[in-house]
Amino acid sequence: MSGARLARLGAALLGFAALIAVWQELSASGRFTVLLLPPPGDVLTTAVDLARRGQLLDDALASLQRVTVGFLLGAAVGVTLGVALGAFRPLSLVVRPVLEALRPIPGIAWIPLAILWFGIGDASSYFLVALTSFFPVFVSGHAAVTSIERRYVDLARCLGTPRRMVVLEVLFPAALPRILTGIRVGLGVAWMTVVAAELVAARSGLGYMIELNRTLLQTSAVLVGMALIGLIGFGMTLLLERIERGLTPWVERR
Amino acid sequence: MAWIGASVRACAAWVAVTALAVACGGSSAGSPGSGPDVVRIGYPVTTLINGQIGQVLARTNILDLNGLKGTLVPFTAGPATNDALAAGSIDVGLTSEGPAALGISQGLPVEVVATFGTTRDALLVPRDSKVRGAADLRGKSIGVPFGTTPFLHLSSWLGSQGLDAARDVQLVNIGADVLASALATGQVQAVEYNEPLPTQLERTAGARTISSDELAYATLARRDFLQAHRDAARRLMIAFAEAGIYMERNQALVDGWFASVSRADPAVIHEASLRTAVYAETRTPPQIDFGLSSDFVQRLQRNADFFANQKLIKSAARMRGAVDTGLWREAAGALASARFDPAEVKVVRSP
Q1: How many angstroms separate the CA atoms of A171 and B85, rounded?
Q2: Which residues from B are below 8 Å from A216, CB to CB?
Q3: Which A residues 195-214 touch B at CB under 8 Å?
Q4: Exposure pattern of B188-202 as b/e (b: 16+ CB <10 Å)?
Q5: What is the DSSP string of chain A?
Q6: What pLDDT digit, counting tens, does each position of B92-135 carry?
Q7: Burial of B342 by CB count in 10 Å (0-12 exposed, 13-18 middle, 19+ buried)?
Q8: Which of A15, A243, B288, B334 reaches 20 to 30 Å from B268, CA-CA?
Q9: Which of B13-22, B180-189, B312-321 has the highest mean pLDDT?
Q10: Which residues contact residue A107 at a Cβ distance below 8 angstroms, ignoring those fewer than 6 apart?
Q11: pLDDT digits (tens, 9 = 90+) for A34-73
């Protein structure tokens, strides 16, 4: 591991250590009862207990599956439609106003319809995650294509580059960094949505686990669910960043 | 550019004050400095009697007549009331036996101080359902709000019928306010909840009852409120009793109030309420008994033990240590000598 990487890792660990120290200090201050803010040690014990019983893995895998399937669907449609509407203005004039009108509707507002259309279970979660992760990916895809400087395309055409090559060698590389940023944002939204969906429309998953334990006043288990969502989401973001670096080596990064 | 610095400092001060206010928001309104007669009461809008008494207190001057200033906070079900009690957002919560036993076992800093009697909770299926008994429920999904008394009764009943609530059926956590629509649209094949939902589904949709149980109401008060404001708590008990008498004398009015917040038909509310003693039989203060019997305490203990046996909580607390039987006795003494005339009560807030 390089020195720079080690420094980054150290800084990140320092941040987590500070968060846990503040948390421990607050829970030990006597201002909050265990019901309101259990100490980190209690939460860790609960996590170990839930993991031993296998519940934690089952719920984490259920959520992960919903996020993965829903997000892949939403991202695929988002990239395709964003690039297509960016490249073909007449199509954009018809479709984009509709999408822009749908975009401000929060994912949570779709939950009643999702339950009616798809019932309680995986399908409604897939739909909700796909729908909400679609929009940031679509917007970034569309913006990526429309913001490409025209002169690059014109230059390629002047040099006699075939249309297919212009798309693959000019448009796509120029748009890719922005598209990938949108995909990362979409992934974050996917996690937010899956938790909201599982609160009411599922029988498993970390959102379901959080809501169940809330009703039972098991605050430490609620925090276990939240922490796990954070960790899995963080891990997926790191993975995406790595993929991003591999796909766009020409982009300068600090 | 000095104004920029001043603005930044002002913003920082505002953020600090807001953060402090938010942090202090959890403290009891009855704490010293905010007046001993202020009481914040949480009540459910999906449960009979608790909901009606909450409405009477919210819309009349009964609290005022007892020297109290009340803030009435509506909730959908018991677990949300427990959350508010834990956070210190309310001083008193009108709930039922299940959330009470659960909350006390989980360390909620409360005492049970009264009970408004019982009502029915039931497991219902649509009129055309093929489900006739417990055996037919295997593989079916049942909607019930988790952590509530109906959830407890349903889990217990399934066990008594030889069904495992985790494996043989699918219990789906659905909010009390959307259970009827969940059943109507086929999202679940059965629902379990307390009155007025069973009467509403039987009357309006021809739903069939597969099993029913008796739900006991429980009123919880935060310990810090009871310790600091015992007299106010005692007067609140009197106000509850007077709200019960007012409800019995003004059934159509109170049913209308409750129907407006629970979005139910007033006729359904009336029909379901007639099955409860506090609504149908309470005419004079001596007839009212909101006191906690040993049977009630045993019932709470059974609930807590059940939650623990099902491994939903780590262990059951001793319920006898969390009941305050003295408060109602103190109030009942004063109630017997009080001269309460429901006709003198004024409606202070219209629907």
Answers
A1: 58
A2: 79, 102, 106, 146-147, 307, 312-313
A3: 200, 203, 208, 211-212, 214
A4: bbbbbbbbbbbbbbb
A5: --HHHHHHHHHHHHHHHHHHHHHHHHHHTSSS-TTT---HHHHHHHHHHHHHTTHHHHHHHHHHHHHHHHHHHHHHHHHHHHHHHHH-HHHHHHHHHHHHHHTTS-GGGGHHHHHHHH-SSHHHHHHHHHHHHHHHHHHHHHHHHHTS-HHHHHHHHHTT--HHHIIIIIIHHHHHHHHHHHHHHHHHHHHHHHHHHHHHH-SSSHHHHHHHHHHTT-HHHHHHHHHHHHHHHHHHHHHHHHHHHHH-TTS---
A6: 999 999 999 999 999 999 999 999 999 999 999 999 999 999 99
A7: middle
A8: B288
A9: B312-321
A10: A128, A131, A132, A189, A192, A193, A196, A197
A11: 888 999 999 999 999 999 988 899 999 999 999 999 999 9
- Return mean pLDDT, chain A: 89
Contact criterion met (CB < 8 Å) for B102 and A211: no
Residues B274, B194 contacting (CB under 8 angstroms) = no
Q: Look up the ipTM and state it.
A: 0.71
With residue B269 as reference, give the H or E element that holds it: helix B266-273
**Could you report the per-residue pLDDT of B312-327, keeping only the tens digit for each?**
888 999 999 999 999 9
pLDDT for the residue numbered B33: 46
CA distance B33 to B216: 36
For B157-173, what is each residue's pLDDT tens digit? 999 999 998 889 989 88
- How do strand B208-222 and strand B110-114 relate by DSSP bridges? antiparallel
